[in-house]
Every structure is written in structure tokens, then in C-alpha cells.
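Dear colleagues,

For the upcoming journal club I promised to circulate an example of a predicted protein-ligand complex. I picked one with pyridoxal-5'-phosphate because it came up in last month's discussion. The inputs are reproduced below in full, followed by the predicted structure.
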Amino acid sequence: MRLQGTMQINNQGHLEIGGCDVVGLADTFGTPLMIIDEDLLRENCRRYYKAFTQDDGDGVLYASKAFLSTAVARIIHKEGIGLDVVSGGELTIALAAGFPPEKIFFHGNNKSANELRFALSCGVGRIVIDNHYELELLEQISAAEGYRPSVLLRLAPGVDAHSHAYICTGQIDSKFGFNIFGGGALNAVKRALESPHLDLKGLHCHIGSQIFDLGVFRCAALMMMDFLQEVRDHTGWTAPELDLGGGLGVYYTSGDTPPIIEEYAKTIKDAVLQKCREHNFPRPRLFVEPGRSIISPPGTTVYTLGSSKEIPGVRKYVAVDGGMTDNPRPALYQAEYEGIIANKAAAKPVEGVAITGRCCESGDMLIWDLAVPRIEPGDLLAISCTGAYNYSMSSNYNALARPAVVLVKDGKVDIIVKRETWGDLSRLHCIPEHLF
Ligand SMILES: *Cc1c(COP(=O)(O)O)cnc(C)c1O
């Protein structure tokens, strides 16, 4: 496993994060346990802030769907970064953290009328309108209740981030946003500009996630700038803001070679400036919305090894005390991870094993082939880069309780999300009277 951030192997041969011995953390807090390296989290925030905000005044919004807790929201805010939320629930957590609503952008492809009312009443910075239905709904509510929200329109620029030879033209099949091709986006812009109840600030796109190819980001930025120019030609409106979404990839395993934050920023800004010169267009204020690249590397999940099953000539399965409930990514999209035996971190590997979860699903795998030293039940497995889309995608399948989350820094540890208890699991259940 590649050591990231403050990770190191201490003189007892144990993995250490944020100056805390992971074996000690597991003893104190139990497993599965998610550990967040505060220094690395802050460093990622600072690099984004420096690359976008410090000199150019562009905005960075952390995509809270990657992982959101009240403590993490406070760190994000203290580092000068805004927040992107996609539901009334995420907005509620952000407000509970004391996050300033004007620094929150509200996304989502099917916000309810209630969520829109809630967002209006707390004064979020931008509402990002995804489709015509929402445009009409938001306008109606704003008119009826006397608001004039600042809005962005989400567009589908037709950049396919996941095909190998990405395409810069042509329509993509996406459930999100107004398509540029076919005129849907231009009509939506005209419609929003006409409305006295909406204050259109700019346009937005988000082309995908875990992207390594900077050409994809460049392509999207160029296309969006061309579209801003097309909008100005047709309407006379010069969009002051352009939000290019998130999507920068991270290192999970040895095949992954993500670009660094600074290169990503330069690519985007160069593309925008190139088009500004070409079209004689004033540089819009840019926004980016990184989620994974801020929170994934700082997160590590620690499990306890339990049972194992060796199938001679096939493989050896070793089970941990969590699985797809706390990390559904391998089951969902064959995601790969690296791991290390945290209490034998300096020991030489002697065999390859398959790490499986404890859920009643054959697809409940975490790592198909992990090189490990001689292991026994009770050993601790740390899997790195689990900060994003793990806890936030977790479930209670098999009525497993969600892990605790701790924040570590300089040898100190704080719990930021308590472990769910078995008692919590029936707290929303009701028994009707006739069943007594
Ligand atoms: C998911 C999402 C992001 C964050 O994506 P990452 O790949 O985690 O950086 C940003 N913006 C929007 C609109 C998203 O849906």
C-alpha cells in the first residue's frame, strides 16, 4: 500500500496516521473504523484554494456527497472553501455545522418543491437548475414567496469523460442538465433571462468522476466557453460565472496516475483564457467542485480479520468485519483498493489473499488479491483512500451498524461520527397497536 499524507510505519511495525498508532485507534474505537488524516485533508483544501481562489478569486466548492459530517464541513469552511449539496439532508448537515448558506450551491436533478423552499428560505448562494421542470417550479415558488434566487443552469456539454477517445462534439446520453446540442440549453438560458424571479449568474457542467485525462477537462472548458459566446451572440447576455464541476481522479492502486491539483487548475484556466481571447469575452468567475480529490486520500478504513476459507488451487478468502455496507464501491463498479496489515505493517508478504466482507452477497468483496504477511484472526487490515463515496454510500444491509469516523492530527484523535449501535437500527421502526 502506498503511504499517503501523514501515514508512516512506526518502530513497533504498526501503521500510524496523524501521529496515532492505528492499532491503538482500533483498540479504543473498535472496527470497522474510518480514520481521517486532518493534515492531508487541509493540505488538499489549501492546494485547491491556492490554485483557484488566492490569486484569481475563483471559487472552490467541496462536493459534500463524497463525505459530509459537521466536523468536515467546518474544516472545509475554515480553509476558505464553499460547499456543494444535492439534497435537503446535505443542506441540513451543512447548516448544523454552521456553514454560511451563501457559500453553498444546491445541486440535484430532482429537487422537490420542499427542498427548493428550504434552500430559498435559508439563502443558499446558488441554486443550480437541472431541467425545465425545475426551472418552472423554482420560478413559481420564487414568484409566490417573493424570492429572486441567484441561479446557474446545468448543461450537458456532450463531453464523454469515460470513453477512451473522448468526444468533443456530439450528444451524450445523460440524465443531467440541458443539452447544448439540439438547442435545449440555449432555450433554457433565454427562459431564465426573461424571468423576473430568477437571477441567472452563469452556467455549470460536471462531466464525470475519477478522471485522469486533463484533455477531458480542457475539452469541457472550451465547449462551455464557446457556448457562452454563442449565448452572448443570441441574447446579448455575458455570463459572469462558469462552474466546471468536479471529477479530478485520485490514486487508489498502482495503475492510477492522477494529475496534480495544480496541473488541473492550469489546464482549466488556460482553456478559459484561450477562449476569452478568441471571443474577446471577459473572463468569467470560475468555480470547481472537487469531492473525491479532497477527501478520498485522507480516509483510511480499518477492519479486523476474522474467518477465512482456502480453496486449494483457487484462492484464499479472508473475511473482515465490514464490507459492502461501509464500502460498496468494489461491488458497484469493480473499484480497486490497496491495503496493509496495520499491526504487521513492516512484515514481508508471504501470500496473496482475497479480502471479502461479511455480507450475504458473493459480490461483497473489498480486494481480490492482496499480498499479506502471515496473518491470523484479530489482525487489522487498513484500506487506504476510502474517504470518498464510502461512508456516504454506506448502508445498513444485514443490519450492520455504520462505522465510527475519527479525525487524527499530531497524535490526537477526535471522534467526528459516532459508531451506530444495534439499538439505533430499530429507532425508526413502529409496531402498530393491533400487533400487541
Ligand atoms: C459528484 C459531483 C461532483 C464531485 O465529483 P468528484 O468526482 O467527487 O470530484 C461535483 N459536482 C457535481 C455536480 C457532482 O455531481
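Two points we might discuss: The pocket of pyridoxal-5'-phosphate is lined by residues 63, 65-66, 84, 107, 206, 209, 245-248, 289-293 (CB under 6 Å). Residues 163-171 have pLDDT under 50 and may be disordered.

See you all on Thursday,
B. R.
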